[in-house]
Amino acid sequence: MHSTNLLLEEPIRMASILEPSKTSFFPAMTKIVGTLGPKSRSVDTISACLKAGMSVARFDFSWGDAAYHQETLENLKLAIKSTKKLCAVMLDTVGPELQVVNKSETTLSLEENGTVVLTPHHGQEASSSLLPINFSGLAKAVTPGATIFVGQYLFTGSETTSVWLEVSEVKGDDVVCIIKNTATLAGSLFTLHCSQIHIDLPTLSDEDKDVIRKWGAPNKIDFLSLSYTRHAEDVRQAREFLSKLGDLSQTQIFAKIENVEGLNHFDEILAEADGIILSRGNLGIDLPPEKVFLFQKSALHKCNMAGKPAVVTRVVDSMTDNLRPTRAEATDVANAVLDGSDAILLGAETLRGLYPVETISTVGRICAEARQSLIVRGLFPMLADPRHPAESTSATNESVLKVALDHGKASGVIKSHDRVVVCQKMGDSSVVKIIELED
Asked: How far is CA 291 from the centre of its chain?
């Protein structure tokens, strides 16, 4: 009867939804990573981002030179000093990323059902019928029928800033493709992604090593985002390289999972890396849409059980140009938190978006509400009730303790195989006392 009552019990009081959100005394448990760029590199804007909740600044070396990023970093230091808000620095490598080079920055218009040729010959000018790329092995990697996406940020094939191509034939080093949707490509550089195709390029390129050595080491970066991680060996090689740079011996490596190859070796990568970044933009191409949520839930669960941070990307793309997210995006952010995500990574939304500060603030509020709902749904009371001591994993204990610290609702014993956490709520206050923590 008791279990039946639990099933029938209203999980969330509807009236509580109408109550104003309350600012928690404790710092947010779900961190926000903001990518700094053209729209978010001034001291004033970075200061506002820090106040809004950004706690990690990401520097994406897929574009911009070291001098440009150094200037941004110096502005970050000034913003940290003025706001007295701590912020870590993350360097994002380029890795084996395929790119279309448009040196003249001519706007390229591609029409549906037309043809376009991808060529490795850099000397040629980009046009609506010819796209020079930075990889000479594409013709050997693809076969007719393969799908290729080209664009700056979004990869669904529906928006006008990215294009979906289908390989029709291979001619020597060139790849002839049929254009599947009308699109306009603007700018000097576009990312190219081949669905479920192995790209024979090193995960940590010579260019990446040069940037880490000349920019990362002097600035003592906190995190290295290892793009396109495909094997545990990729992480080991990156760690070996960092260890040779004395200033980066303590830098944590976050493996960025971006394709099926990385998914196939996820467990071994997780064991080797310090954290995981679920890069849903490229994964959304490699995986059928109906499989993306399964990957996310499974990967976050594995990270939680291993006690390693998990970061989710591509959550509020519409806020790049709009002041508010869609309802689906807001729900997506909350579900990522409920699934166990430790951080949300914002890319285009803060790099070139019109509302970087508002985006960080909005995502932060959604994360806070999701954390609050963990208590309302009974996660903590169920595990922390001293009458029903919970046997669970360390990662679950960590999550419960985070919730307890967030809201001051801790009372009882939480046990796991390798530790015992005894926490007690101090009267009616919001103070939580950890009585014992044993390995």
From this structure: 18
